[in-house]
Amino acid sequence: MDSEQQQSAIEGAKVLMVGAGGIGCELLKTLALSGFRDIHIIDMDTIEVSNLNRQFLFRQSHVGQSKAKVARDAVLKFRPDISITSYHANVKDPDFNVDFFKQFNVVMNGLDNLDARRHVNRLCLASGVPLIESGTTGFLGQVTVHIKGKTECYECQNKPAPKTYPVCTITSTPSKFVHCVVWAKDLLFAKLFGPKNQENDLNVRSSDSSSSSEQVEDVFEHKNGEEIEQYARKIFDHVFGYNIELALSNEDTWKSRGRPRPIYCKDVIPTEHVHQNGNQGRGSAAGDMTSVSAMATLGLKNPQDLWSLKENAAVFLEALKLFLLKREKEIGNLGFDKDDQLAVELVTAAANIRATSFGIPLHSLFEAKGIAGNIVHAVATTNAVIAGLIVIEAIKVLENDVKNYRMTFCLEHSSNKMLLMPVEPFEANKSCYVCSETPLTLEINTRHSKLRDLVDKIVKAKLGMSSPLIMQDSTLLYEVGDDLDEGEVANYAANLEKVLSELPSPVRGGTILTVEDLQQEFKCSINIKHREEFDEEKEPDGMVLFGWTQAQAAEKNSKVSADNGASTSGASEAASTEPEDDDDLQIIIPPPVSGRKRKLSDVTATSGVPSAAKEPKIKRKAEEIEGESDIVMLDDGNKVKKGEA
């Protein structure tokens, strides 16, 4: 296709972007400057302060506003002659159905979680619209092309479990201990000891501040003459008490999740006890700088012990006082260092107190240190590179240039003098239950397990269905939807509490269930195999599903991205097997090229794009190294760590 025909294809295309975060901002800008004239963008998220260092379409004045709308307005200022339609909404809303997707020539994802990615993948398959996926983690990135009947779909390969988290989860609705660690390290520690002019998403307005006051008093400011013990207690009460109560005032947030518990200092440690420890802190602070430790002051010796709430509160107060007493000159320029004992103590204690508020299991200092030391920050340049690669692949799709489609991987270290590694796409996995409709097999105790167990643990959590319908032959066992009458709703609710073998149409070994999501227009079959017993440790769900692309559990010792991506799905991370950010997707380093039978074609790429045969071989380690999960070795000795979902 010559340049005029190419430009005509670009200008006549109608494209959909899902996500307006780190990748989304760069992608929208690049699409507009490349000549695309009809762009639609979906994002349910609002702008946070922490987005501003890499999402360059946003400014301080935009904080709290819709990402999709602000991004649209920003681009229209320099490209007023094009059409950009923004939707401040969840991509899983019923309005965005198959018919909606059919109007587009190509869909481009800049998402931050696996659940939404799977949803869009299925809508693209059902509508026959090409999908271009992407993700970044630090210096790593990837772009993949998914076209029904020509390449594998997004769910043809295993996806590592989520390891990255949106800032809204960190600040408002943590559900895992790692969320609390990120909050304590990147928000609280930075606010207490980092540059004073540095803004983040931690509320600084005290309960005493007047809403009409023009000058908001910063509760984190240590006033002249203010007792150190009084200041430490004030900080404790603000972040673990008042801020939790402030969050509870938004009733909508807690309709479908557990409410956190505010914790105040007086309820954990009496004033007299705080004064006693404060005196001990002054004694310890007089020693060598390297020996300063709240644990030593309080007589806590083993870093692998789990501290009680009272011990965590004592460590937090003592560590804060020691910073103010012994390391006052460093305050204002301190950054978290996993080798700084006092910093690790404060972050561990703060994370555990916050975890207590939200009903999350506590962790030892040893475990918290491992989590806090593995955080990967987003890199704006990587987002820009990936956005450019998305547009390149989108143009190929519009030209129907099948032989030159590429999955491209952005590496941190060069391999064969390349930082960008293009690989030919693979054909659909014939065992994929999504695009190849291969039946699944479920081993389950049909005499003990309820239909609710099947729906929650398999249909929603593993198969990613939002509005499932379950049938056995012609009998409808379960359905959700707004069009059901009260009798149907009551009937299906009653079925949920019934054991499988006691349903109106009993489910036993040999039964074949049909499970369907009408919004996704996705259907699959599940062969039921009765099994009496399960290993509680290895099979905690009490059932085992075969034939699906199982996520690899990698929560412990995993890397966590501090980026905040474009959140377009409201699903919880636990329910989606997900992940989640910068628009962070897990980085899937491609398997060995030689001998691969699932290659789309053996066509050699045109000059300028290395063929798959010329790509460096990539070897997967057979075993995970503890603390170094998902390591991939390149032949030249470089290590590439896979990123998040």
UniProtKB/TrEMBL annotation:
The active site is at 168 (glycyl thioester intermediate). PANTHER family: SUMO-ACTIVATING ENZYME SUBUNIT 2 (PTHR10953:SF5), UBIQUITIN-ACTIVATING ENZYME E1 (PTHR10953). Residues 4-433 form the THIF-type NAD/FAD binding fold domain. Keywords: ATP-binding, Metal-binding, Nucleotide-binding, Nucleus, Transferase, Ubl conjugation pathway, Zinc. Belongs to the ubiquitin-activating E1 family. Gene3D superfamilies: Ubiquitin activating enzymes (Uba3). Chain: B, domain 2, Ubiquitin-activating enzyme E1, inactive adenylation domain, subdomain 1, Ubiquitin-like 2 activating enzyme e1b. Chain: B, domain 3. It comes from Salvia splendens (Scarlet sage). ATP binds at residues 19-24, 43, 51-54, 67, 112-117. Zn(2+) binds at residues 153, 156, 432, 435. Residues 636-645 have a biased composition (Basic and acidic residues). GO terms for biological process: protein sumoylation. This is SUMO-activating enzyme subunit.
